[in-house]
Amino acid sequence: MDTSTSQPPEAGAGGKKRRPALIITLILLGLLAVLAVVYLLGYTQVIFVRPDWARQLGIPTITPMCARPTLTLGTASFPLEAMEPPGAGALQVPAGEPGTAWWVTNTFAPFVILLPRDAPAIRPGEAMIVQWADCGREEFVLQETRPEAVDTAALLAQGTSGMAVIVPGAVLWGVRAGQLVTPEPTDPNAMQSEVSFGETVISEDGKTLTTSLTILNTGGKPITVRLEDISLGVEGQPAASPLSVEPALPLEIQPGESAMLTMTFPNPGGNLATLKLLDFAVDLYY
């Protein structure tokens, strides 16, 4: 009689087969957990990037989100989303959360933004800022509120630098932060004034550039503007005098009064030039 004691089967072959499967399962579960965390942090969202990148790439990219895009007007901020330009007709606000601002994609000169609510309290000179999702910023200041009908075709034609925030019944018009200037006098006899800039337009044939500005005399003496006091230039090229100025120069601005000048120059090319007027200079974007 065989008195040998039976032994349980060794875990060898079966255990070796099960162990790799368990490891693979754990790896897959780990990867799923990582993807879930990444998704919750927002890194897998497709976001619209800064306009200078968008112009080059022409497509959305997947990029780590620095902050949700926002529009700031004065002290008020609004979430900013992107919308496609209309094929024809008026701009229509997409359905979305109340208080959301909408940037019309591929608008850069001017940036066109719709805000389907009354304009917040904002005064000329206060900030109009777009914070993009990649931490880039477009900084403007309010030049004026235009209580007029919106010429959608003109805005979408992209021929004028600035930012147009369309609110019910009005347009908040912004200029680059460096284009609203209060010159600091360097001596007691220097000009004391505030200068704000209007639209900058390139002619249809591309040969000339026309810009406007308003000078407010905040000092106690008259300010005289002559043709030789104005020039426009780009780095590496001689500055050019205006081809024409309206009203005609010389022009005397009395204390407390303001005057608007419309100046036409030869187009210096590019999209940035330095405008000099009397004792100050400012970068002009177009």
Bin the helical content.
10-25%
Low-confidence runs of at least 5 consecutive residues = 11-15, 40-55, 59-64, 181-188
- Give the beta-strand count: 19
CATH topology name of the largest domain = Immunoglobulin-like
CATH architecture level-2 label of the largest domain? Sandwich
> Which secondary-structure class do the elements indicate?
alpha+beta
Strand content: 35-45%
**Biggest sheet architecture:** 8 strands, mixed, barrel
Rg (CA only): 30 Å
Series of H and E elements? HEHEEEEEEEHEEEEEEEEEEE
**Given the C-alpha coordinates, what overall shape results?**
elongated
Q: What's the overall average pLDDT, rounded? A: 77
Distance between the termini: 106 Å
CATH class annotation of the largest domain: Mainly Beta
Query: Order of strands across the biggest sheet?
Result: 3-4-5-6-9-10-8-7
Number of domains: 2
Count helical runs: 3
